[in-house]
């Protein structure tokens, strides 16, 4: 048991480490009467909280190189702390992309256009399988939490190493469920490696799947369509909250460049810190706000067997962060540019990731304008050295490693906390993130030293509960996914010869999902009045046993006079006396029959409704896909949404290219009495050059009419590169009787068309508009016309 903290006397307290954990403990203890000292081995405060200045001429802006973002759902204590200090936050964008083999394969998850930023991937079965597996994982990964055994409290006498239960790793789970290599290597492993700054091999071989899934669920990252929490960044850089805490802290209690070499206890039980400079000091209590392996090194020879056994389970990895502006460490295709850009190389000997590199696009994350600051990037473990002229600074950070042993050892920490006047705190005690480290510092200050917080402390470990609850929509989605997996995916893979057989067969899972619930109901819940079951008897043994009525372990009652054959083998074999006719295997009660009818009707109606919904949704869905990807000759909207809100980089005319002739065509439906014509026959533009064209529409009828226009581009291969900044399409246009209006179209041709082999030889592009009479449903809502 933990020693009860004594809050009655003023204590001399040392905090070792000034990362987010140490700063949190310091802030909480500043509100007490304890005498607090802060020791830091580096020449600055903050640890991963490291804000530097990016200067261009007379301009300067703050850039975070370690801790960058937080979200509104899983950082409750840190956000409440920032509110108390009036540290402002700004919303930011969190997107993720992957670039493999220097741009050979790239995608980003921002929208459909970025997923298929490489148009050839539209026809890639591997790409579609990855997308399907993402949807499948988001639905079925929750079973890892649902099926996990409830945590049993560990005893102080338990051995931390011998008590480690078998925890399934990410790689084992993916292999068991038959996920594709594309999903593993180009989605889940990169995302896990990026989030925990851990090598892909360790993610696959050592990282517990339960830890990953619980983190993803807590952070709402397993929601394919549902809204996710807002992501935030500190407006003036993460260093701003440290500056706010340190205001008024006595300078003679702060010791930078002061590394703690060792810790010991004196005869009175007080804690003695021995410093690298040869000095030492004595304290009533010490908070080791360091990594777990660093804490063990500080304990040194004074560590007890229990402390050594527990703390030795925690390890860290070293990562280099480089602040630079070298675009060779970004995806080649600008459409794939994301907030987090995972860069990797493939190996000829295996399909898994060999190297990991992650570039944070600070222009997106911290709203740093490219004018005047240019591209501001932070790359973790760069694949190659950025050019020296474009490199601003280098930093090294340690991140906790998560293995089944480390996760198990976290449960034992409470047995060594607050013993010998020592508290252990850090992000490594939970998931490894800023909230975990900050909350850990608050917790030890509150529980071990009596600090009072100005807000309620929230344990975010189970921010959404311990186990997710599946609703009707979840079950229906799972059923559809299994149907697609069994009847589409697996059939196509067998045809292509790329089938990867999971140890958990999808067909069996589908059957189980459809019928296990009913099958469990079918298993007779016998009562004393239940009709006995007759099954096909096994080959009778020579041993005949007459039995009296008795309750079997299965819950079945064997009536008197029945004969059991093979009872010595443990199988229950019954026959109705004096009858050569065997009864049906399952005899159901009325209640069971009703339930089966209900479930059968439920699944049947669900499939019918799903089919109807899909048929109604196919037209707008097709329209959305066409407008995003350029299918069917549909031009895409300008890339403002995909290019970080800044399309200026695209609007640079390529003067070395040939001009392309853009012609204009117009037509109206037979039922619309309008005259609709282009005001110019053609314009000639360079790729990247903006152009403005006009159409003229006249209502020749005697009534006011509302029309709506659709559009397309020919030839079709040019559609993905025809970007409209402003137009009148798919919007209701009301013209009074006899009225004439001009309708502008502001557009440009994306310079990427110069890199597309399908655009070679294309010299003329035609923009087609067709006006239809607007239609409305019975509720008065506008119905968009079908895409031509």
TrEMBL record:
Region of interest (Disordered), ranges: 542-576
The cross-references to NCBIfam families, in alphabetical order and at most eight, read:
PRK05089.1
Keyword terms: Membrane, Transmembrane, Transmembrane helix
UniProt-annotated location(s):
Mitochondrion inner membrane
Provide the function of this protein: Exerts its effect at some terminal stage of cytochrome c oxidase synthesis, probably by being involved in the insertion of the copper B into subunit I.
Q: From which organism does this entry originate? A: Metarhizium humberi
Pull one GO CC term from this UniProt entry: mitochondrial matrix
Q: Look up and give the membrane topology term.
A: Single-pass membrane protein
Principal subcellular localization = mitochondrion
Q: Does the keyword Disulfide bond apply?
A: no
A GO MF label: copper ion binding
Q: What is this protein called?
A: Amine oxidase domain-containing protein
Q: What is one Pfam family matched by this protein?
A: Amino_oxidase
TM annotation in the entry:
12-29, 595-616
**Top-rank taxon, per record:** Eukaryota
Q: Where is the Amine oxidase domain?
A: 21-298
Record flagged with keyword Membrane: yes
